[in-house]
Specification:
With 220 residues, the chain is α/β, with parallel strands linked by helices. It has one domain: BirA Bifunctional Protein, domain 2. The chain contains five helices and eleven strands. It has helices spanning 11-30, 63-68, 105-121, 192-196, 202-218; strands at residues 2-8, 38-43, 47-50, 72-75, 82-85, 89-95, 128-130, 133-138, 147-157, 160-168, 188-189. Strands 1, 2, 6, 7, 8, 9, 10 and 11 form an eight-stranded mixed beta sheet that branches. It has a three-stranded mixed beta sheet with strand order 4-3-5. Strand 3 (47-50), helix 2 and strand 4 form a beta-alpha-beta unit.
């Protein structure tokens, strides 16, 4: 697994880099050559992305208003609906050949959720899955208190993945008011900072996350 921390990077630039790695992995598979698995971490300046099946009515403001607030907008090729990325949020883009791990897409998404759940547990934040909704959630037993702390949206072709997850660490949650996050109107969003009451060390989270990827996907 090749790890690359892209630091803070414009969304379009990171998307282009993902596409290059994705195309490279597919070309190697076509040539029956073993592929590399890449794990990219980054933060983005303020941006809203809409998945291929996303509904534009979940964007609550005109694009001109978003520009005034310094928020970019992208329609992209991942699954899922609409989400926000911004400073203080850890975004992960695994470009994985799932066949090299002998798993399918459903298990892959389960693994991503498991990594985030274990990471949060190390900070004494109890989180879980929510039936029918990808991502990681808090307090799913009380619908009025249910809040999302991590979003997941992926694309795959011939078992090669791109896009990935976004974990709210020290994120300014006010930007989520620009959208119905992931298409939901009856659930909230949260962050590690909000749950813990203090800012969290981003580099520490990255280190823990990278080790969990190795543990769950490679078995180290």
């Amino acid at each position: 697994m090749i790890y690359n921390d892209l630091k803070s990077i414009e969304y379009g630039q990171a998307w282009e880099y993902q596409q290059e790695l994705f195309a490279y992995s597919l070309s190697r598979k076509d040539s029956h050559v073993s592929t590399e698995n890449y794990l990219l971490f980054c933060e983005h300046p303020h941006v809203i992305t809409i998945g291929k099946h996303g509904k534009h009515e979940n964007l609550l403001f005109q694009e001109s208003f978003l520009k005034e607030k310094g928020v970019s907008l992208f329609q992209i090729d991942r699954g899922g609906d609409i989400t926000y990325h911004g400073p203080g949020q850890l975004v992960g883009y695994p470009i994985f050949d799932l066949e090299s791990y002998n798993i399918g897409l459903r298990q892959y998404i389960f693994n991503l959720e498991e990594i985030i759940i274990r990471l949060l547990s190390s900070y004494n934040i109890q989180s879980e899955r929510l039936n029918g909704a990808a991502g990681v959630w808090i307090n799913t037993t009380i619908p009025s208190h249910t809040r999302k702390i991590a979003a997941i949206g992926v694309r795959s072709s011939r078992f090669v993945t791109m896009h990935g997850f976004a974990l709210n660490i020290n994120t300014d949650l006010s930007y989520f008011s620009l959208i119905n996050p992931c298409g939901f109107i009856d659930k909230g969003v949260t962050s590690m900072e909000k749950e813990l009451g203090y800012k969290v060390d981003m580099e520490e989270v990255k280190d823990k996350m990278r080790k969990l990827f190795e543990e769950i996907f490679v078995g180290k």
